[in-house]
Amino acid sequence: QVLVNNIQTKADYVVVLDHEGGKGYLRHRNKVAVFGRVNGDSIASKSTLSLGGSVQTACEAIDQDWAAHGSEIRAAVLAAQSKSVTSQAPAATVIGQSATSAKISVASIPDGADIEVDGSFVGNTPSDIDVADGEHTISVQKTGFKPWQKKLKISNGSSIHLKAELEKSGT
Question: Where would a tag sit more exposed on the chain, N or C end, judged by fewer CB atoms within 10 A?
Answer without folding.
Answer: C
